[in-house]
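Q: What structure does this chain adopt?
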Amino acid sequence: MNGSLHDTICAIATPVGEGGIGIVRISGEKAIEVASTFVRLRSGRALAAVKSHRVQHADVLERDPRRPVDEALVLVMRAPHSYTAEDVVEIQCHGGPFILHTICEAAIHAGARLAEPGEFTKRAFLNGRLDLTQAEAVLDTIRAKTSGSLRLAQEQLRGTLSREIDGIREMLIGLLAHIEAAIDFTEEDITFIQPQALLAGLTNAIAAVTRLTETGEEGRILREGVMAAIIGRPNVGKSSLLNALLQTDRAIVTPIPGTTRDVLEEVLNIRGIPVRLVDTAGLRDTDDPVEHEGVRRSRMAMEQAELLVLVLDGSVPLTAEDRTLLSHHADKKRLVVVNKTDLPSQIDPSELERLVTREPGQPPSRAVWISVRTETGLDDLRDAIRTMMLRADFEPGEAAVITRLRHRNNLTKAREALAAAVESVQGGLSGEFVAMDLRAAIDALGEITGAVTTDDILDRIFRDFCIGK
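A:
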């Protein structure tokens, strides 16, 4: 960020557009002084004289001439008891864009500057109000699309992940203290920690780091969501399935093969998972240039998807196109959805099971039987999507979960450093080698919470925030 952290900053904190309420936030050493130049309390008192965290009725004045722009509720929050741990003034007025920009301009004219993206939250971090994982959770809370992703973000905001990381880090700092003491008093022939106890501590730390690392996929899925492509040959019910899951007529459905000629996308909540559901054109050879382009885009969506939902028409025997699709994409998680179970079945379940089952070690694949027309089996399909993407025993909020690639990378560094420390102890190397590896692990964990950080890390984290948060 280009501005000084000693500057007083201001920004509109509510979304762009018209609304019943709009908020302008001012933070910094001179926040109250800046706001006092254009805020006139109805009580007649000076803004600097009011108690912290008490709502005041006020008029917001134009710069010139000095007449009211709007009436507002004004809230003074004195340091350190505010979001940024600085003096903060929040002006809650009517949510018209002109009013809000006029207030911001008045604040800037009085000596504030416009906040940069994420600068309020960055100040909260630098002033010790939040750590880095909690700051990230603020953004995740704003962007949450499902109850599962919101619950995960809220647990992280409350410090669940931070406490887990800090606990591991404190354990390692304790081990490092014993090792460094032994190094300092080598000539005294004093043993501060036995090799067996040191190995046990390192092993416990590795287990804790590994356990956290293994939560990374579930955390990423709940935070970012999953792309699932609905595929199949024409006229098997792909668009009808999309409409049924959305509970709306999003895709055009006709009995004519090739009706869907482009890729349609919708995001929906399936058992707490944000799923970006993509309805694709029916996969077949065609001379129609428009349909051909739709098929090309469908194949591209299939390559990008994390989950394939392969739809079959259960009222007719498996075709050559069906068998081809069933044999492809062995590297993808897959749900085979047999549609039209309200009609007499023409697909042998045992044969389908044989075609669906994959070799051990390959991504999971299973079949679900449904009827889009009667909505039979749709709940089974929703359950299957969750089971396919998350561990059966996974429940967001019950334990610490990492949510970002940054977390996983630093945990991997820590685990590698701890493994090197174990090798050094087992190999009888001097304490300096073990201490060096322990410091690397401690620093890697510290980067997750911000105990150890650089300007580059901070810039990468806060650039995704909106101005005003």
